[in-house]
Design a protein that fits this description.
By secondary structure, the chain is mostly helical. It has one domain. Helices cover 67% and strands 1% of the residues. It is built from 14 helices and 2 strands, in the order E-E-H-H-H-H-H-H-H-H-H-H-H-H-H-H. Strands 1-2 form a two-stranded antiparallel sheet. Helix 1 runs antiparallel to helix 14, helix 4 packs across helix 6 and helix 6 crosses helix 9. It is globular, with a radius of gyration of 21 Å.
């Protein structure tokens, strides 16, 4: 991709990271990860790999548990670049702040709207990724102009606050810090919504704000005049240290995504930085097959749109259109093969929508 970020070449690894993460998420909408099960393949390597594309039931970490932290981190990562672009266009600090908070509110409202569409009821849950991104987006912006030390200490304080709440909170039926549906987060959800969401809690927005703040810090670091190799080495060191610390804390505080324990936030934050470091090395330093970043970049350019489109029934609509043709072509090889091919074609169609919008220069932003 030939876009430039005003004063410097665009950091392609950020686009690649965002596009890759969104494309993986779209795979869930087309059920592509549900076809490889023990019933079909037995206890095989494929099944073991497939388990990584589903959330861990409770205490533990799988690859799919990193998708939301990736998003939170990428939002923070992009924020310094977006603000620099607006400053160069002449926007005042007041105008930028208004835009940031307006965007945050819109993300929250869209997240709530998805809940209402899916359930048929008016609900205001905070577990949705859009809602949580909206909340952490504002929090990260409010502290991003402070010193590096302040931002780091603020993010740590969010984790310590969360840790203390879970460990010290004690109400009958909700007095076990790290047991599903019996902890502070579940109690809070019951108070305002009347029910617990299978262990997923709204309070996650507070500790996972650390992911967005760390994204801002890494984004600011990437904008510095340090050499690319220096940036790479420091990202590797920071990411490795966080991953190691998160796993070392696991015997004390379990790694639980559904309530975003401090150990989970730390270890997933570390993996987010290491993932970016790898992509940065491949694309921005080694410049290996630079053009293939376009494949993921086109998804990156309209990530919110394609997420909403797939979520509100776009993926199902495409499946209904393609189903007669894909089954006519592949039903001879068995229904399972036809199902897999249909899902792959729907997945490809969602990508092509992004590609078509890209070549037509249609970029839907909020």
């Amino acid at each position: 991709m030939n876009n430039k970020n005003n004063s410097q070449n665009r950091i392609l690894s950020i686009d690649l990271f965002r596009g890759l993460t969104m494309l993986l998420l779209l795979g869930e909408f087309v059920n592509i990860y549900n076809y490889f099960t023990p019933d079909i393949f037995g206890q095989s390597v494929i099944t073991a790999i497939n388990s990584q594309f589903h959330h861990h039931a409770w205490n533990g970490l799988r690859f799919w548990d990193l998708i939301q932290p990736y998003f939170m981190f990428i939002v923070g990562l992009s924020l310094p670049f977006a603000i620099e672009s607006r400053v160069k266009k002449g926007d005042t600090n007041k105008e930028i702040a208004k835009h940031i908070h307006k965007r945050a509110v819109m993300l929250i409202l869209m997240g709530w709207a998805l809940y209402c569409i899916n359930s048929g009821d008016i609900t205001f849950y905070f577990q949705n990724v859009l809602v949580q991104i909206g909340g952490t987006y504002s929090i990260a912006y409010l502290v991003m102009h402070r010193s590096i030390n302040f931002q780091i200490l603020f993010s740590i304080s969010l984790l310590l606050f969360t840790e203390a709440l879970y460990r010290l909170f004690s109400v009958e039926g909700f007095n076990h810090a790290f047991i599903i549906n019996e902890n502070f987060g579940s109690w809070l959800d019951v108070q305002y919504s009347g029910e617990s969401q299978d262990g997923w809690v709204s309070f996650n927005m507070i500790p996972t704000a650390a992911h967005t703040i760390w994204g801002v810090l890494i984004g600011q670091f990437l904008m510095s005049k340090k050499t690319p190799n220096n940036k790479l080495i420091k990202m590797i060191l920071i990411g490795t240290a966080l991953v190691a610390l998160g796993y070392l804390l696991a015997p004390i505080t379990p790694i639980i995504k559904r309530i975003s324990t401090s150990s989970f936030v730390i270890v997933s934050g570390g993996w987010s930085i290491l993932t970016l470091a790898f992509l940065y090395w491949v694309v921005d330093i080694k410049k290996i097959n630079k053009r293939w970043t376009t494949f993921f970049g086109v998804v990156s350019m309209n990530s919110i749109f394609i997420y909403l489109f797939a979520h509100v029934g776009g993926a199902n609509l495409i499946e209904q259109i393609l189903h007669p043709f894909t089954y006519a072509l592949f039903f001879w090889s068995g229904e399972f093969s036809a199902q897999v091919f249909t899902s792959v074609m729907v997945w490809a169609s969602l990508w092509y929508i992004c590609y078509w919008m890209y070549i037509k220069k249609l970029f839907i932003k909020i």
